[in-house]
Amino acid sequence: MAFLAGGAAAPARAEPVCAAPSELTRAGFGLPRLAKSLDDKTPTTILVINSSATSDKKPAKSTGAAKDAVPRRFPSYIEEILRARYPDGGVVVATQNQPRATAQAILTVLPDLLRVNKPALLIWQTGTYDAILGVDTGAFGDAVGDGIRLAHEAKTDVIVVGPQYSPRTSFAFDVAPYTTALRWTARGNGVPFFDRYDIMLYWQDEGIFDLDADRPSPTLFDEVHSCIGRLLVGMIADGVDKRTLGSR
Amino acid sequence: MSQSATARRVAQEQPTGTPATSTAVSPEPASSPPAAGGAPGTAPAPPARSGRDLRLDLFRGLALWFIFLNHIPNNVVNWITNRNFGFSDATEIFVFISGYTAAMVYGREIDRSGTLVTSARILRRAWQLYIAFIFLFVIYLAEISYVVGSFSNPLYAEEMGALQFLSEPDVALVQALLLKFRPANMDVLPLYIVLLAGFPPVLWMLKRWPDATLAVSFAAYALALNLGFNLAGYPDDRMWFFNPFCWQFLFVFGGWCGLGGSDRLGGLIQNRFVVAAAVAYLAVSLAVVVSWWWRPLEGLVPEAIGALIYPISKTDLSPLRLLHFLALAVVVVKLVPVDARWLRWPLLRPMILCGQNSLEVFCFGVFLSFAAHFVLNEIDSSLAMQFIMSVAGISLMVALSVLLSWYARVEREMAARKYG
Q1: A107 in the Ramachandran plot: left (φ > 0), alpha (ψ -120 to 50) or beta?
Q2: Which CATH code for domain A17-59+68-241?
Q3: Which end of chain A has fewer CB within 10 Å, C or N?
Q4: How far does A40 lie from chain B, in Å, by closest CA?
């Protein structure tokens, strides 16, 4: 795991709350299919596969935490910011919530999702449920790799999003090995990896957000998701600009 | 691990600080009464009198410290532990040395008291571990209940949902009793229990046909590695984090070494090519592992090789990890001869004491890591606090081992007066 020192560059001064070291937000790999789709000014679908326990429609009853109004999650921010950024791109974000699904389980529905949505970009958030179940990290990495290949065969770019940093539950299950597996799998398959864990750890360390407060501020959820959306769009834009370097 | 596991040690061993009386009382452990240590076994409490290989205690103590540090999430101090510098980590050291000492101690006991009695004592040891596991589990449940009760953050709905097994305590508790529900950080304990519970027949076989037993153990490891069978866990279909069918090989290999196998491997340690290969492997492993977390080295491992070697399974004791441990053992044994004078350096004494009381110190370490984690989360997670928690935890582990060793000595002396 990267250890982030305070000395790391923290860009985006205008948006101080969304600061993150640039090495965590660089795409590293191009997103040529998405770039082409944005260029062609055809409708560009971005499919987000989410493993969140709460669906966007109704809050979970489980923890008693989500009684409040339905919060906005990062996919909706992505859509909003991308539309502003690429007004002619016809960006549509389709969100597929697959709560309590391992990467292996996603594989079984992924071909259908790709066929139906025909996305130019797949944002695949995974790892949390695998960590909860203690799935073998090897099998987990293999499953994600298979999913990336499926997407590439369907002419879809991929950004892999890792599990989030959760200080209160880390004693019960540790997501770090899964983040490592994801980083490697993403690199091996030439796709960007959005390291939500390290970014949120950075926020916590820098005091940007207090992620383990007993009584989190009511806006915390929105702010975190809005920041994740913002940084993800930064990564997407970076990948789109890199298109010439992308070999796929 | 040792090139002279039995013969040479007896003469040279006279640990500092051991009162002359106790040395006189029990010149060799064979004569120490059952009361000695209360819980003899993988970590026989009467230390060093027999001319124990202090390296075993030292490195097991070190492994216990590392396991404790690694089990505190978000602790900066765990960057010093060996998992950040090579494929294998403290678990390999712990399991191997536990197998080594278990075979050594119980092997001697078989000669003395027979197979049946020894088997019963091994099983009693496993039972003690089981009780310790349940005790730790209760503490763990308390911590989970606290988090579930006090913490509500919609951001973590999914993560908190995973702790909801408390909503059906009947199931969760029974699963824990069956060793199926093993919270993170407590995974080594069920592995150890199962290995020890299965040890009597293995020891019996090791005494008779050491090489054949080792071969069978390796075959089981290879099969489990390739077919992927493992014990089932809870909740849902999670598996044991440490696949006992794979990890048993390291334990049995330790036992094989402890019963004289290491003497036969002595030639390997002297062989320059073996040592050179071990050093080379350690260096490559170091570079690869550092490249995972040190960004300047990111991209060091060519993708083709990465695809070949990655992921390196801890669950199934990946051959890369096993090899790394073996290479580490070769280099350590080469660098640290059994009679190295600095092994008796007083500063290393705390580590050795911890290694000599490994079961108690291990369980206490799990508890301390819970406690440290709790403090870091609830009170203060600053860098200074991380250091304080790490140092305080290790100090407490040492304090416990001092206490246990003292108590074992007192009991031994009392028993000696009574019987002798």
Answers
A1: alpha
A2: 3.40.50.1110
A3: C
A4: 33
